[in-house]
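Example: AraC family transcriptional regulator.
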Amino acid sequence: MKIESVSQVIEIIGLAQGLIIGGYFILKKNNRNINILGFFLLSYCAPFISYFIRETGMLKTNPSLFFLPVGFYFMSIPLYFLYVENLIYKIDRSFVLKHLSVGIIEFLIFLVLFFIPVEYSLPLLYKYEWLYNAIYASLLNFFCLSYLIYILLRLKIYRKGSLKINSNDTVNASWLQKTTILLVILYSFQFIASNFIMLDIYKEIIYITDSILATVFIYWISIFGIKNRSMLKLDSNILKALNQKNEELEESEYLKLKELVQKEKLFKNTNLNIYILSEVSGISTRKISQLINYFYENNFNSFINSFRINEAKEMINSSNYEQYTIEAIAKEAGFNSKSSFNSYFKNHEGMTPKAYKRLSKFPN
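Written out as structure tokens, the predicted fold is:
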């Protein structure tokens, strides 16, 4: 099978996969996150249509198809940004329109050119070919990479802020960081590859590699969407309040808070956050944060996980939990994943849970 044929097959698979999953996500009711992800998937796989038209020779018989407004090149990554932003913060309609404005302008320009007779649109393209190449060979990748780097910074800020209010370091934020890094790699590859394509070097190999990477990415991000995970949104006003100057703090109040968490085993709730603890204790979120920062000298996340680590140690040392796996002990103690449990346990005890369990059985 020729490289061109292989490339076309992969493009069809990627397009079908993106259209089916993207359409399914868009049709899901009462789930804005998944709806935005669906629009992103559709926009991300849409260029496959342009590639398919080009490689099947349809442009020779119908040149106007070059302007078919299905690229969404300047809309795809902003949609991904809106998906991430809507997961971790609250966004409104004006915010959405602002970030989609460039993509909307691109769509309208191609829509007009598509309906203009080719005897006018093609000469216009040839006249400004240098501008077209500059935009889609360089500016587009710079635009997308800038967005992706900004997303990574936003996720870093989110993870730092979530430690102040959430008892479990969110697995979803870590997953989104990996996904964004994967997109950075994809767009970096496209940026480098575009220079080879313009020189007509390794063109077919680049197309097939790009198609494979894009298809794998569509599958990768769809897994997260299908699982439909949610994330605790951060409120910037609450975070500012938590960082304000300390009120008058009493150690007795901190000890009562500590006793409540221990006595009621609140730490066993994997979804425990500062809002839930505030409701149970009757202490404001700001006061809880300040008590923990001042007397425990760390954040809310570390404070709650210290109880979980102690609980896990007791379980490991107890014969009642001898048949429990490390993962089962982690879940029972309140951790939401084995990896986060291993990480916190090693930082707290200087060894992995597995090593601690082995040592508890054979202390000598």
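The chain has two domains: 3-227, 236-361.
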